[in-house]
Design goal:
The complex is a heterodimer of chains A (202) and B (207).
Chain A lengths: L2 H5 L4 H4 L2 H9 L3 H21 L4 H18 L9 H23 L7 H10 L8 H18 L3 H12 L6 H7 L4 H18 L5
Helix pairs in contact in A: 3-4, 4-5, 4-6, 4-8, 5-6, 9-11, 10-11
Chain B lengths: L5 H8 L5 H12 L3 H19 L7 H16 L8 E4 L1 E5 L17 E7 L2 E9 L5 E9 L12 E6 L2 E7 L5 E7 L2 E9 L2 E10 L3
Parallel strand pairs in B: 1-10
Antiparallel strand pairs in B: 2-3, 3-4, 4-5, 5-8, 6-7, 6-9, 9-10
Helix pairs in contact in B: 1-3
Classes of the chains: A mainly alpha (202), B alpha+beta (207).
């Protein structure tokens, strides 16, 4: 995951938890809706992409799942389960789209053999395995935890956790404009905060 | 050696310590310190989750389009799946229940009826009013909706033998009252943005 995109998340995402965001959405706060789907954008979009669907299909599924989430806002009882609900709903949309593609997606004028080959190329998608679901949920919890940290911590932990190449303290200090000797102690404090945020989740 | 600080432990786990310092912490962990092992396990677990995260963010336009769902849906709160001209099905009739043994007949009791069509239900109460006329009191509800957005301000037409004899509009909570109707069998039609629901053969005053 690229750290840059995570850091680009609006600051409001870190402030309100899901329960507060849902309540704000219901009272007509559009920024709460933006924060909510920004929070879950990677989770929703990654599922169709990982299952082999095209970018166009993944974009359509993203829209469709967001619409379903919006329609469900008024009846969400347990905001702790939004991740789980999104995983189930998105997987179901992937399966539905895949089934439709396999059934009706053969280009006009194809011979029988070409049709068979075409259909073979369209991924057949089944339900996610339990371990895949768990991994997706854990990754979401961690992203949310990091996003909920104070700005300085969020920058630091993002660089440490999500940067592709391991960075030295000197590099980190330069990137976030912090004295080199402060990096270690700050990181420890930020990790303690993160641990509290993730208690019972990871 | 005493327990290393959390900071030192993380440095050790990230291979940022001198070899000799790292060896001391390794020995400490090897001696079975539970607290440090717990810290180590948590950190390694979290790093593992981060390392496995190959999630992909959607293109900006995809996110923007989904953000617009909010405005679009709020501007058209009543737009749902079309239900066409649905005939409501009777779900409950208080007069259809057998009277309990020993309980006197409730000749003057109001009649409760519940109809359903798609996501909507129509809850009705028929009450006798003066001069053998009937009052019809009811509420239209949409399943799962707590804001009454879809059921307020709906037009209701009460028809007898195909002719509309009374019209009214639901209030902010989907409720309505039609008073002083002549006894008879009526059709109640609820006009929705997705179509209409007709409650057929409604007996105003018990048959």
């Amino acid at each position: 995951m690229k750290s840059q995109t995570l850091a680009e998340a609006p600051a409001t995402t870190a402030v309100r938890d899901d329960r507060e965001l849902v309540a704000a959405c219901l009272s007509g706060d559009q920024s709460a809706w933006e924060s909510l789907i920004t929070r879950y954008q990677r989770l929703i979009y990654s599922i169709p992409m990982k299952t082999g669907l095209s970018q166009d299909d993944a974009s359509d599924i993203f829209q469709s799942v967001c619409l379903k989430l919006y329609q469900k806002l008024a009846t969400i009882r347990d905001t702790e389960r939004i991740s789980s609900w999104l995983i189930t709903t998105t997987s179901r949309e992937c399966w539905r789209l895949s089934a439709r593609n396999r059934k009706g997606g053969v280009p006009a004028g194809s011979t029988d053999d070409e049709s068979v080959e075409f259909v073979k190329e369209i991924p057949a998608i089944g339900p996610l395995a339990d371990e895949q679901r768990e991994a997706l949920e854990q990754q979401q919890y961690l992203r949310q935890g990091v996003d909920s940290l104070p700005e300085r911590c969020r920058q630091l932990i993002t660089l440490l956790f999500y940067e592709k190449d391991e960075l030295s303290y000197v590099d980190i200090a330069r990137r976030i404009r912090m004295p080199v000797p402060s990096v270690g102690p700050t990181r420890a404090r930020c990790l303690e905060k993160l641990r509290k945020l993730l208690e019972g989740k990871i | 050696m005493n327990c290393p600080s959390f900071e030192r432990l993380i440095d050790f786990l990230d291979n940022r310590l001198q070899e000799s310092d790292g060896a001391q912490i390794a020995n400490h962990l090897a001696r079975g310190c539970e607290g440090c092992a717990e810290n180590r396990d948590w950190y390694q677990r979290v790093r593992g989750v981060a390392a496995s995260d190959d999630s992909i963010a959607p293109p900006a336009w995809v996110l923007k389009r989904a953000v617009r769902v909010f405005d679009t849906a709020r501007q058209r709160p009543r737009l749902g799946k079309r239900i066409g001209q649905a005939i409501a099905a009777l779900v409950f009739d208080s007069f259809a229940r057998p009277a309990l043994a020993g309980v006197r007949s409730t000749e003057t009791a109001n009649r409760q009826l519940l109809y359903s069509a798609g996501d909507y239900s129509v809850d009705l109460q028929i009450a006798q009013s003066e001069q053998a006329r009937a009052d019809l009191i009811g509420q239209v509800l949409k399943e799962g909706e707590t804001t009454f957005e879809s059921v307020s301000g709906l037009t209701l037409n009460l028809a007898r033998e195909g002719t509309v004899v009374f019209s009214t509009v639901t209030d902010a909570m989907g409720e309505f009252k039609i008073s002083g109707m002549e006894p008879g069998v009526y059709d109640l039609r609820v006009e929705l943005s997705e179509g209409s629901i007709t409650v057929p053969d409604l007996p105003l005053i018990e048959s």
